[in-house]
Amino acid sequence: MVNDGYANVRCVDNCAVVVEQMSAKYGALGGLTFGRDDARTLESVADGSVDCVVDKGTLDAVLCGEDSREGSAQLLAAALRVLKKKGVLLIVSHSKARAALIPPGAWKVATHDVAAPALDDAKPATTHYVYACTKIA
Ligand SMILES: C[S@@+](CC[C@H](N)C(=O)[O-])C[C@H]1O[C@@H](n2cnc3c(N)ncnc32)[C@H](O)[C@@H]1O
């Protein structure tokens, strides 16, 4: 994103090792800050302060954990809280069923299928799903 001109990109994960490794790998790019935070609360991010939230695999991970339904609702509520009006939450997921989790009153959702190349020749190419969720109010 930074290479495409986006500024003030904050990168969070709830795993300290991930934060440390990503910071070591990408910190020199500039324009990025790294920190440990829970996507279900986003305590390090102020209300109505960001234009876009990008979730790549985190909602999927939360849905694999304990209290997954509650966790997914919390993650979506946290994204809604930190976004400016008309801000966008981009969810990249393995599942084509995520739209059902997104409360319709708060978001306008467009779903896009994205071809995901095979990781090696032995495995077929697959599809990932991107949900572009615009904050309505
Ligand atoms: C499938 S990986 C995706 C990692 C990265 N976004 C990517 O695309 O390569 C899921 C990540 O979500 C993180 N994670 C799981 N639950 C989380 C939570 N409640 N808050 C923040 N990060 C979480 C995991 O530590 C893991 O790094």
UniProtKB/TrEMBL annotation:
InterPro entries: Lys/N-term_MeTrsfase_sf (IPR051419), Methyltransf_11 (IPR013216), SAM-dependent_MTases_sf (IPR029063)
GO BP annotation list: methylation
Keywords of this entry: Methyltransferase, Transferase
GO function term, MF aspect, one: methyltransferase activity
Residue ranges of domain Methyltransferase type in the record: 5-91
One Pfam family from the record: Methyltransf_11
Top-rank taxon: Eukaryota
Signal peptide residue numbers: none
Homology family: Belongs to the methyltransferase superfamily.
Protein name: Methyltransferase
Originating species: Aureococcus anophagefferens (Harmful bloom alga)
